[in-house]
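FAQ

Q: What does a record look like?
A: Structure on top, sequence underneath. For example:
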């Protein structure tokens, strides 16, 4: 049974697929079998990106398929150590399904109130539907300044949620890398790669914490946690 990391938001363009790719790379580099379930049948961003990666010959290959929903993807849970559920934009109902299917559910957001207020409301809604707070985390992503991280942290933790440490700034280098089938850890700029690696390391730490808190955790999850 795979360890499942879900990415969801009501908003598009916040960094879900960027996270999915970066997490998958780190898992693959640790010799885990990892699979991204691209849940956006219309846009297929992760799927098409993986094709570009494959065509460029970049290793490791990242395995991605498109699915109608988390249930369909979860049927393949026995085939992989890690499944990353990459949620679509504007699919409120699916965010709940993704959160329910996930061991860790990440919602990326900018650190401005226009974005954070609806993001917090979404988490509140998930809690109302019975999703445990302990598996939900925010990730401040695409920020423009260190102050935005600071303000974002204060706002989101004040709302009662955990925020993973580290942040990727809004930098053209990230978009550029992904144009060529690369991840946020493989840009031309070392400082960007380091920031991305720190963010993924925080995600891994959170996974480890969840695993440790669960005596019945799957062995694959222990492997990712190191
Ligand atoms: N930190 C960043 N800086 C600059 N561009 C980014 C950054 N993160 C993502 N992007 C770009 O922004 C767009 C949306 O990101 P994506 O991860 O696909 O978001 P989502 O999956 O939430 O829609 C993509 O073109 C991506 O390459
Ligand atoms: Mg996406």
């Amino acid at each position: 049974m795979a360890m499942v990391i879900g990415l969801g938001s009501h908003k598009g363009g916040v960094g879900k697929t960027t996270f999915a790719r970066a997490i998958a790379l780190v898992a693959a580099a640790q010799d885990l079998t990892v699979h991204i379930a691209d849940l956006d049948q219309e846009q297929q961003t992760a799927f098409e990106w993986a094709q570009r990666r494959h065509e460029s010959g970049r290793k490791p290959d990242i395995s991605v398929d498109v699915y109608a929903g988390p249930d369909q993807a979860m049927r393949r849970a026995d085939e992989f150590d890690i499944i990353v559920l990459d949620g679509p934009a504007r699919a409120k109902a699916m965010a709940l399904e993704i959160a329910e299917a996930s061991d860790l559910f990440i919602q990326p957001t900018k650190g401005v109130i226009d974005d954070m207020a609806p993001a917090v409301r979404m988490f509140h809604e998930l809690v109302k539907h019975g999703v445990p707070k302990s598996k939900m985390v925010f990730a401040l992503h695409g920020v423009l300044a260190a102050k935005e991280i600071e303000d974002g942290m204060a706002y989101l933790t004040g709302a009662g949620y955990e925020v993973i440490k580290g942040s990727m700034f809004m930098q053209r280098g990230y978009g550029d890398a992904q144009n060529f089938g690369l991840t946020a850890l493989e840009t031309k700029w070392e400082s960007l790669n380091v920031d991305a690696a720190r963010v993924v390391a925080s995600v891994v730490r959170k996974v480890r914490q969840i695993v440790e808190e669960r005596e019945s955790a799957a062995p694959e999850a222990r492997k990712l946690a190191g």
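Q: Is there anything notable about this one?
A: The mean pLDDT is 94.
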